[in-house]
Amino acid sequence: MSNNMLLLFIDSLPYELIAKNNLFSWLSFKGPLRPGVGYSFTQKAEILKGQQPDQLGYLNFWYLDAEPTAKLNIVYNLTTFVRDIFPFGDKVLHYLLARVWKKVANIPFEFIGRFNNGVPSSYAPDNPSILSMGKWEIVIGDDLDSPNPDSAAVALMQTKIESASEDRSFFIALPQLDKLGHLYGPDHENYLEHARYLDSQLQKLTEQFLQKYPDGVVCSFSDHGMLKVTESIHLSGKLFNIPGGRRAAYWLDSTMLRVWVETEEEKRIIHERLKTEKHLHILSEAERKEYGVTLKKFGDIMAITLPGIVFSPNHFGIRKPVGMHGFHPMHQAHQAFWGMVQSNRTPQIENGKLIKTIDFYRELLAQKELNSI
């Protein structure tokens, strides 16, 4: 039996949108996929590697360094008087520093150098995943120099399938829907039109693949959904002030807050303050365990905004997106999708059933006849 696989990844496609618009009807099996906590870096790794953030060692894209970056720490200390004396001195210096060092994003000046970014790509050949097992042809839309990365990626994959001279598997990653969702929101016609385009193009790609590999397996998935932003909130840095003149380190993603403290008393104080913020859901210890985000490096306190609400400004920047993700994993519009085309290996998961990302990873292994990564 052949174990050739066509694996189709669409960034930010909600199952709710598929169901409402009767899209991807050519998939024999499909259903909602419950993501974990976090954004694409975390979700893709969980599906392709079968590891939650606790095992991966990272959550999202940015992380707290144990010690401030030396050079930036010097800059911060030397410019203290400027920021204290001159109006808007902090903002001006921050802007100038951002011009020469892009990684400062919108991080509060006192924390510049405390945070860093960079996580290993789930697609990298030297990063063990299902894509590092066997012979794969891989096309990543983000890597293509094209104004329409999805169409360029599909065209390139068509060529790769056509020219393949031996048994192999194929993986394609399509990023454009996520960008359209952030720019226009999930209810905009541009977003829906592109979802329909992907439906048509991936069906053709599937037919081409199965014509060449009749016993092959076709699996598709997304990493999370997309919600329309209904409100933005400003979270004051004063919430994180510690008695004695110090401030706890905190990181604001668009929809996630993480706070690091030094003592249990500091944790109690800030936790009590955050409980009064009506737009936040503080993750309980049980939830952190369930979603695999228990490590202290991910934060002593973690909270996510309620669906449709974003932090603005946040540490990424000031501009508010029209659509966003990263909300509670159980919210229906935030759930991703999984899908398969009937093959000689009947899926072990029930058609239409809500499953977790880790369950779909196990299904991919079964379809590829692998035991583990």
Description:
It is a single chain. The protein is an alpha/beta fold and 373 residues long. It has 3 domains: 5-57 and 120-227 and 329-368, Alkaline Phosphatase, subunit A (3-Layer(aba) Sandwich); 66-113, no CATH class; 230-320, Gyrase A, domain 2, CATH 3.30.1360. The protein has 12 helices and 19 strands. It has a 7-stranded mixed beta sheet with strand order 5-6-1-7-18-2-19, sandwiched between helices. The chain has a 4-stranded antiparallel beta sheet with strand order 12-13-15-14, with helices on one face. Helix 2 packs parallel to helix 12, helix 7 packs parallel to helix 9 (189-212) and helix 8 (176-184) packs antiparallel against helix 9. The longest helix has 24 residues, at 189-212. 39% of the residues are buried. The mean pLDDT is 90.
CATH fold naming of the largest domain:
Alkaline Phosphatase, subunit A
Q: Could you report the average pLDDT, rounded to the nearest whole number?
A: 90
Which outline best applies?
elongated
Q: Hey, roughly how much beta strand do the residues contain?
A: 15-25%
Separation of termini?
Answer: 21 Å
CATH homology superfamily name of the largest domain = Alkaline Phosphatase, subunit A
**Helical stretch count?**
12
The CATH architecture of the largest domain: 3-Layer(aba) Sandwich
- Kindly state the number of beta strands: 19
